[in-house]
Design goal:
single chain, 243 residues, Rossmann fold, binds adenosine-5'-diphosphate, binds magnesium ion
Amino acid sequence: MTHPATTAATAPQGVSLTLDGVTYRYGRGHAGLGPLSLQVNAGEFLCVVGPSGSGKSTLLSLLAGFLRPQVGEIRLGETAVRGPDPRLTLVQQEAALFPWRTVAGNVAFGLERQRLPRAGRDARVEDTLRLVGLGGYGPRRVHELSGGQRQRVSLARALAVQPQLLLLDEPFSALDDRTRTALSDELLGIWWSQKVTVVFVTHNLEEALALGQRVVALRGGEVVLDGAARELNVGRLRETLEG
Ligand code: ADP
Ligand code: MG
């Protein structure tokens, strides 16, 4: 029998991430991101904060390879990101699940491209569901789930492929406080056990400080603060973002 611990032991470790003078502009206007240089260590948990329109989602779209920088380069480990990369996965704010698939079918989605034998795939799906607190939920239908449970399924789908970099774009912001806290705690546990590199985007400063080892603040597409979470506080972050 496989167990989450076995999965973790065989999972690849987190990968480092480098942004080297990255700039992205939407059209001719100035809206976009950069120039931005940033180094995220393998296994680090980085939170990116900033008000609406500061470039957080643009940053994640660039990291995920959905957008290509017009200037500069993004590297995972030693290799440049030149499009969707199997070493990373993205969780978005609204769980974009397939309503016609079961919970297990949704989690298995990313695994279908990996040539895993059926039994291995089923075991991986069940292990990952257990990891996000949904053991036994595989046969359920998505419409039977609460918002928090759906977001757990999204997280499981992203984790099932054992990414080396996990990107999350305001993943818990549509959830109530209690559910958000529960999911945040679990995400920390998962990060700890899977040793994955995490880039977590939020506009919630408390959430960023509670979760991240390191916090980067964006304003107008540029980094205005980059520091260890334990040396920062909400007042300092707010001052920098408004200043
Ligand atoms: P955030 O996620 O921090 O709210 P975004 O990355 O979505 O910020 O947006 C950064 C800037 O780029 C904003 O000025 C926004 O209006 C602009 N922008 C985002 N997406 C597009 C798009 N598809 N076309 C044109 N401008 C965009
Ligand atoms: Mg956004």
